[in-house]
Amino acid sequence: MSSRDQILKSIRNQIVAAVDHPGLAGDWIRYDDRVAHFSSVLAAVGGVAHVVDSSEQILAQLKQVPAFAAGKKIVSLCAEVAGNVDFAAVEDPHQLEDVDFAVLPAQFAVAENGAVWVDDADVKHRVIYFIPQHLSFIVPAPANAADAIVDNMHQAYERLSFGEPRFGAFISGPSKTADIEQSLVIGAHGARSLNVFFLRQ
Amino acid sequence: MKAAQHPEEAAKFVANDARAHWHDQALWFVREKRDRMAVSLPEWEELRNTASQIKLHTVSRMADYLEEFERNATKLGAVVHWAKDADEHNQIVLSLLQKIGAKHIVKSKSMLTEECHLNPFLQEHGIEVVDTDLGERIVQLRDEAPSHIVLPAIHIKKEEVSETFHEHLHTEAGNNDPNYLTEAARNHLREKFVAADAGITGVNFAIAETGGLVVCTNEGNADLGVSLPKLHIACLGIEKLVPKAADLSVFLRLLARSATGQPITTYSSHFHGPRPGGELHIILVDNGRSNLMGSSQFRNSLKCIRCGACMNTCPVYRRSGGHSYGTTVPGPIGSILAPSRDSKQHKSLPFACTLCGSCTDVCPVKIDLHHELLEWRGEIRKRGQLPMSKTVPMKLTSWMMQSPWLFRFVGAVGRWFLRHLPRWAIYHGLNPWGKQREMPEAPKQSFRELYQIHESKKASDE
Ligand code: SF4
Predict the structure, then answer these.
(1) Which of B55, B314, B367, B368 has most ligand 1 atoms within 8 Å of its beta carbon, as the pocket-test mutant?
(2) Contact (CB, 8 A) for B353 and B332
(3) Which tens digits make up the pLDDT trace of B424-443?
(4) Which domains does chain A possess?
(5) Burial status of residue B248 (CB atoms within 10 A of its CB: 0-12, 13-18, 19 or more)
(6) Where would I find the H helices in B363-403?
(7) For B100-131, what is each residue's pLDDT tens digit?
(8) Ligand 1 atom with the shortest distance to the CA of B332
């Protein structure tokens, strides 16, 4: 008998009383001001949120980030900001090893934990979310920034669907560690800084 | 081989009083962060109840959900393997690596691969395995085991990290700055990521409905490790399953808040199938889990999401260190899981517990940890595995208690001796209560005598 069948048989041989799935309906938390809550949670985990109306405003903010101003290799997958790497032409993700800064699209944000959701549907190398020294996300916001932010994770999963080969992630702030005597250090393996722009359209 | 027992191992840790206090405080600090997060959500208890129910439901339908997961993961292009035990798991990993001639592997945190002793196994076969979580890398370079499931290097001081890095990564001697040391590790590990032939990850949650996997880290090491090389091997204990993607909302809200007091981990990555041009192999591992499922007493322990909150709050863990448990998963939950594998080897662990119940209070999936620990004590007695130091005094006490005059006599003699014997006669190896603490001074009168005096005084006052 294969291990698969042995394991399944061993499980089916156990007597376990049936328990119903509890369902997920609940009175889950909501925030009066999602933008303010998102921004303060993101700040607490080391990121910065901005609400902007135009690509000029994004550029103006980015220029104040030293890593962007000094960045030699910049990947941008957003029309609002120009990069200097032809991402589509990159064949091997290893070529992205020395990217200084990346400006990437994110789909929506979550107020309760300061996370944005990203996926690789239109992003050829998913390593771009992890390998740049610094990272910025642009989140499209239909009329006002709050439209791009859900209150909690239950609402977040209502917006998501899975079913095809795909990578997706909630990313909340820059990479960090506290493994040396619980001292928080920003910039463990991934991005050393993270800016999130809500772009009103 | 005589199994090392918790009291002896803990004694070694406690011998360094300053370090034991430092360890205690470091973990209490994490516990307090968890508390602040728990109170920030009015629905905290509702979340715990829901999480607990979802897990129980999943366990009650485990075989169906595993099959559903396999079907969906395969549809997405992943290859699903099944391993009944640690050996089979290790063999599968090895054969996958050998097939592509992989020599350098990066691995993100996985308690399952620790449980299976994967690293030494692969190293014996000439494969370099680099743990990429900073805490795990520190303990790996020091040739130690993690002492905590979420904070693997919580027992190590920054001066010691500095020495280790000086030796292995050639950092400045005596530079103890965590920023400096983390930067050195970042550069060192980035070289390893770029050079890796394959990436191995653990799995926090697997979704039956979609065939997807979720891996949570703060450092992004799992993601870097599997998005450069073509081969991703995901090692997954069968209890990590949840029925639907939407169920993750509950677990992702609880996990990081309970673990480190963060609202969510920095990266919560959802892998559905391999990346274009890559391969994803998923190994479903039983290794004793299916047996636990049938046990009504201990089935609850399968709900564990490995947040570590029970360790951070446990007064015994905090003061005795993770290594004193001698298991992959230490602390309250480890003291339940380990004896279920081998109760003889790990019989001392359920007795390390003070039954204070703090672990049960913080557990995000509502495992009744201290009840299970008490159950285990009974179980160990039933199996005749109690040490004589526990059975002989119990029998003597029971005999003495059955005879009131003997009880009174022994008490009087004991009080007299405790007050008049020299220190060496009281503080010695046979009196564990005299270790690391002063015995209280023995009173001149017994409770009974005091009571009688009190009663006769009351009678004469009336
Ligand atoms: S038993 Fe509960 S508190 Fe302990 S690690 Fe598991 S989920 Fe966390």
Answers:
(1) B367
(2) yes
(3) 777 777 676 677 677 777 78
(4) 23-200 (3.40.50.10420)
(5) buried
(6) 369-382, 388-401
(7) 999 999 999 999 999 999 999 999 999 999 99
(8) 4
